[in-house]
Write a structure and sequence with these properties.
three-stranded mixed β-sheet; 2 domains; seven-stranded mixed β-sheet; Spore Coat Polysaccharide Biosynthesis Protein SpsA, Chain A; 12% strand; single chain; alpha/beta; 51% helix
């Protein structure tokens, strides 16, 4: 039995080699991205619900972008705080701000996708750039960098949405490491010609892509997924590319307690079950390869079975994963998360397991 487990362990290592050295290397070892300004007209779309404090701070940063032709479409999704009043003030202050007021609708109560649909229809530009109300760009050239990747055929751009660094917070390192790993996955698969998701914190596409798939209609009843489910449905090898220039990043405030972060993860994971078959398969296979790497390593070492071979395989696995993720995290300006890589990886694996079990018992809470 232990011999069989050893062979399975070797197979798990081989599977991880495939992911890290063949798939993830497509992004990790990619050349720095060339930026060629396009100056195409853009609608920046921000949907907010009860985000008065955040929009007060961050909308002015969007209004200060170095870009010749853009509008800001602010969508108030029936907020109960001062968000609408703040948006109305911005509409008077900035000539390129367009306000969309969403009233509660019985059929789409509290559904962000309904609000976004109204905003997209109200937008006057053909190219749409999305971010969240709690996000801000890393530079005044955010729009220019993201739109630089549009071409005649590349009409969907996947960007990187980072989280703020909180000094002395280990939870913050966990959150940012997971964000890096997620980005490495969807960037790499996009470069492989199999795009499967993007993040609403930093995402761009041409308006026609939205209407080609009837917008969010096929998954309107699923509260989450205005970003990843849409990309999973609309993107392909021909129309999708990525933007990873540092000036194209956005940043948002991370959760500061484990319970809040866990709730957020439950929402994010809940949409994955609606992905295309191949995407669910490859994501599941990667997760199980991580989980069984640890379980089999513990079992084989506990019985001291061929311990020198097992230890050698463990060291080899950590070398190639550390190198690949190290290069990738450096590209995303997140190198500090790699110092705690083995510990954080283990925490994430079992947190993910907890999320799956919890979601199978109860539904996560979605849009506010």
């Amino acid at each position: 039995m232990l011999t069989i487990l050893l062979y399975i362990f070797i197979g798990i290592i081989a599977l991880q080699i495939f992911y890290y050295l063949i798939v993830f290397s497509k992004f990790a070892f990619a050349k720095p991205q060339k930026i060629t300004p396009k100056r195409i007209p853009v609608s920046v779309i921000v949907c907010a619900k009860n985000e008065a404090e955040n929009v007060t701070k961050f909308i002015p940063l969007l209004a200060e972008q170095n870009y010749p032709d853009y509008e800001i479409v602010l969508i108030d999704d029936a907020s109960s705080d001062d968000t609408l009043e703040i948006f109305e003030a911005f509409e008077k202050q900035y000539t390129n701000v367009r306000l969309v007021k969403v009233q509660n609708n019985e059929a789409f109560w509290g559904n962000k996708k309904f609000a976004l649909t109204l905003g997209i229809k109200a937008a006057k530009k053909e190219y749409l750039l999305f971010t969240d109300a709690d996000c801000y760009p890393t530079s005044k050239d955010w729009i220019m960098n993201m739109t630089s990747q549009f071409t005649l055929h590349k009409t969907i751009i996947l960007g990187y949405g980072a989280y703020e660094k909180i000094k002395g917070s280990f939870l913050n390192k966990i959150i940012r490491f997971e964000t890096v790993l997620t980005a490495v996955q969807y960037f790499s698969w996009a470069k492989m010609g199999r795009p499967y998701m993007g993040v609403g914190r930093n995402l761009a596409y041409k308006r026609e892509e939205f209407f080609k798939v009837n917008g969010f209609m096929d998954h309107m009843k699923i509260r989450s997924g205005d970003d990843d489910l849409f990309i999973n449905q609309a993107s392909n090898s021909k129309n999708t590319t990525i933007c990873y220039a540092p000036e194209s990043f956005t940043i948002s405030a991370p959760k500061t307690t484990y319970s809040e972060w866990f709730k957020q993860k439950r929402r994010h994971v809940s949409t994955a079950s609606f992905y295309k078959g191949f995407d669910k398969f490859q994501l599941g296979l990667f997760y199980f390869s991580q989980l069984f790497f640890f379980l089999l390593a513990i079992i084989l070492l506990a019985f001291q079975f061929q311990w020198m071979i097992v230890c050698g395989l463990i060291v080899f696995r950590y070398i190639f994963t550390w190198i690949t993720l190290g290069y990738a995290s450096g590209r995303l300006k997140e190198k500090d998360v790699m110092y705690w890589f083995p510990v954080i990886e283990l925490i994430l694996i079992f947190t993910q397991l907890n999320v799956y079990f919890t979601n199978s018992i109860s539904k996560p809470v979605h849009w506010k």
